[in-house]
Design goal:
- With 447 residues, the protein is mainly alpha-helical.
- The chain is built from 22 helices and no strands.
- It has a domain of 226 residues.
- The longest helix is centred in the middle third of the chain and has 35 residues.
- The relative contact order is 0.15.
């Protein structure tokens, strides 16, 4: 059988299984392993021979799994995840929100703005959008509802703010993208800073305009807050500020690599939690258990994706796709917009990691062939995946917020509120596409 036919069949099968909500790790491992076996066993012009294909297929699976798991850059994944969990249990992430809430209390829509900034700060520690939405949703949404905020505004602001974990370093998506495309993860982290801040600014503008048009959606809390209260709240946020400096400042200044920054961040939260007495033994054990679970899940998915990439390369589908696109006569910008449209559509139905790992074997060769910078493209991909997190019908962050707040706020209510934030998301995406310097400016200045 023609290898390219097997490759197309494998991609379609994997996409179908993911749409049917089969776990992505099982999908990628099973489809790529079986299709690789068929490719080796059923060569063009010959009969199917299982024995002939078994040994090379096993070698492909074993070598890719071993090489990937032993990747040095991936060691930062459990370190950042552990640092995020411990920061949450030691209330470092909560202190960010409390500090901003106190300072923004008299601003119309101040609690929603504080929630967005808190999400940005949480993202700069944990690197996970879902974890950010889940944790900040428990803190921020009930607080806004208690002060009479509109349900759409309260829930949608946190769901949108949670997506910042995809762009603001340390981002798990950037780590996976950098590993698969062999680009610098440190430079990817820096490339995400300005787009992440632009997204945050866009969300804040959305809230301010929303409240300006509908003042009743965000009542201003009663009661005065003294200067001492503001000073105390700001001082309590110093551990979070230190972590941001370690991660962003340390990498940008050339003091740490991304992996070293992860190790230093984990050491800092452990030392702070122990000295301050905020980290109990039970919290530490729970953090390690959650870290092991998340890391194991991510690595299993990533190993499946690595095998899938090798299978796609084996079938030659990527080369054929590049040739077809090159001979199509389409302008570069048209091809780029087609890629963007594919990510937007897939993001409506698949989780971000599944979308990225399934498409990179096909999109990266096209982007390289057109002469685009892979770091810039990484920012575009992650921004598109961020949009997918809040795009109906399967906006993952929306369902996370719904699960956190329970029956008090329905899913459709959150989606109606999200539409306002999606407008600004599209504006930021267009700016990143039109002006690559927004993504590449900081990486170009790194030491």
């Amino acid at each position: 059988m023609d290898p390219s036919t097997i490759g197309i069949f494998g991609f379609v099968t994997a996409l179908t299984l993911l749409i049917l909500r089969v776990p992505i790790g099982f999908t990628l491992v099973s489809v790529s392993s079986i299709c690789a076996l068929v490719t080796y066993a059923w060569r063009p012009g010959s009969e199917f021979n299982l024995g002939r294909g078994l040994r090379p297929a096993m070698a492909l699976i074993e070598s890719n799994a071993f090489e990937f798991i032993h990747s040095y850059s991936l060691s930062m994944v459990p370190l950042f995840i552990a640092a995020g969990h411990i920061a949450y249990h030691t209330r470092i992430t909560t202190d960010i929100y409390d500090a901003v809430r106190v300072w923004m209390s008299r601003l119309p829509g101040g609690l929603a703005v504080a929630s967005l900034i808190g999400c940005g700060g949480f993202s700069a520690i944990t690197g996970s959008s879902v974890a950010c939405a889940s944790s900040m949703g428990r803190i921020c949404v009930p607080e806004m509802l208690r002060y009479g905020y509109d349900k759409q505004l309260a829930s949608a602001s946190v769901a949108a703010g949670g997506t910042l974990g995809a762009l603001i370093p340390p981002s798990v998506l950037f780590i996976l993208y950098g590993t698969f495309t062999e680009t610098s993860i440190s430079r990817l982290f820096m490339a995400g800073v300005v787009p992440g801040l632009l997204s945050l600014a866009g969300f804040i503008i959305t809230v301010l305009v929303w409240v300006k048009l509908r003042p009743e959606a965000a009542p201003v809390p009663e009661g005065a807050i003294s200067g001492d209260d503001r000073f105390t709240a700001a001082i309590k946020a110093w551990p979070a500020a230190t972590l941001m400096i370690i991660i962003i400042g340390g990498i940008y200044g050339g003091i740490f690599t991304a992996t070293e920054a992860a190790a230093v961040s984990l050491s800092f939260v452990l030392i702070y939690g122990t000295i301050s007495g905020r980290l109990r033994w039970a919290d530490f054990v729970l953090s390690m258990r959650e870290t092991a679970y998340q890391t194991g899940s991510l690595f299993f998915i990533a190993v499946g994706a690595k095998i899938f990439v090798s299978f796609v390369s084996l079938t030659g589908v990527t080369g054929g796709l590049v040739d077809i696109v090159s001979s199509s006569g389409l302008e570069t910008w048209m091809i780029l917009l087609c890629i963007v449209a594919i990510y937007l559509v897939m993001g409506m139905f698949l989780d971000p990691i599944g979308t990225m790992l399934l498409t990179l074997p096909f999109t990266v060769p096209l982007i390289e062939g057109m002469g685009f910078d892979l770091i810039w493209f990484g920012v575009i991909v992650v921004k598109l995946l961020e949009i997918g997190l809040i795009t109906p019908p399967v906006g993952l962050n929306v369902f996370v917020i719904n699960s956190v707040v329970g029956r008090e706020i329905q899913v459709h209510t959150i989606f109606f509120g999200i539409m306002k934030f999606l407008v600004l998301d599209i504006v930021v995406l267009l700016a990143l596409l039109a002006f690559p310097i927004l993504s590449l400016g900081l990486p170009s200045l790194m030491f």
